[in-house]
Amino acid sequence: MIPAPRHITARDGARIGYRMSGDGPPVVLLHGLAQTSAIWWENGVAPALAPDFCVIAPDTRGHGASDRPRDPQGYGTRLVHDILDVIDAEAAAPARLVGFSMGADLALRLAADHPGHAAGTLLIGSGWSSADLRDVYLAIALGLAARPPEPDRHDAEALLALAEAMDAILGLPEQAVSGIAGPVAGIIGAADPERPFAEKLVALRPDFTLTLLPGLAHEESCRAPELPALVRAFAARP
């Protein structure tokens, strides 16, 4: 069963929704663009973690049960601040961060800029993304705006505003990425166009471990049958 959303008021007054289950060391699960926190229960990751971990899964602004500003100034690093505020509200210790696609970009930025909140970072379907990936975000958001609306999941105008502000998240400098503390690992489909971003981390960080999912494209990695066990193994790493 997917738990009902809870809410906090973020530092700028926005209402941020998130779901929780389980008890133990905190693991924060960050969804991709146009998804919601529910994806982590649908793909089996949250149920696999809940017996031994406290699962915290926010809805990124513009999505799900969170506010949906339509101005780019409502996004950018505010997306990271929202995650920090949820962690501060619910976790007594630094959290393991697990992100898919956009969630991976947010996790890497958070781990680099706020090391006291991150006890490890697992990037799924992404890696050390370059700044020009913002154009891909914009293209995806424009494509979503042309489709029938999905009001329970996201707001198309809000996603366009989010995409416009992603340059504040992407393109971390090499020194920031190399200095991230704790374990950093990746999971990516072998056919994912973002695979080069993950492989850049292999070259930069000798401790970085990358798991390739044979034959899978970008969206498929989030629902791979082996994903729950892989995420649980990362969460349990010392």
Oligomer: single chain
Globally, the shape reads globular
Order of helices and strands: EEEHHEHEHEHHHEHEH
What separation lies between the terminal Cα atoms? 29 Å
* Number of E strands: 8
Q: Helix tally?
A: 9
| CATH classification class | Alpha Beta
Major sheet details? 8 strands, mixed
Unreliable residue stretches: none
Looking at the structure, the CATH topology is Rossmann fold
What is the mean predicted local confidence, pLDDT?
96
Whole-angstrom Rg = 16 Å
Strand fraction equals: 15-25%
Structure class: alpha/beta
- Range of helix content: 25-40%
Number of discrete domains: 1
Instruction: Supply the CATH architecture.
Output: 3-Layer(aba) Sandwich
Account of the 3D structure:
There is one protein chain. This protein has 238 residues and is of the alpha/beta class. It has one domain: Alpha/Beta hydrolase fold, catalytic domain (Rossmann fold). Helix content is 33%, strand content 19%. The chain contains nine helices and eight strands. It has helices spanning 39-42, 45-49, 78-90, 102-113, 134-145, 156-164, 174-178, 195-204, 227-235; strands at residues 6-9, 15-21, 26-30, 54-58, 95-100, 118-124, 184-189, 209-213. Strands 1-2-4-3-5-6-7-8 form an eight-stranded mixed beta sheet, sandwiched between helices. It is globular and about 40 Å long.
How is this fold's topology laid out?
Elements lengths: L5 E4 L5 E7 L4 E5 L8 H4 L2 H5 L4 E5 L19 H13 L4 E6 L1 H12 L4 E7 L9 H12 L10 H9 L9 H5 L5 E6 L5 H10 L4 E5 L13 H9 L3
Parallel strand pairs: 3-4, 3-5, 5-6, 6-7, 7-8
Antiparallel strand pairs: 1-2, 2-4
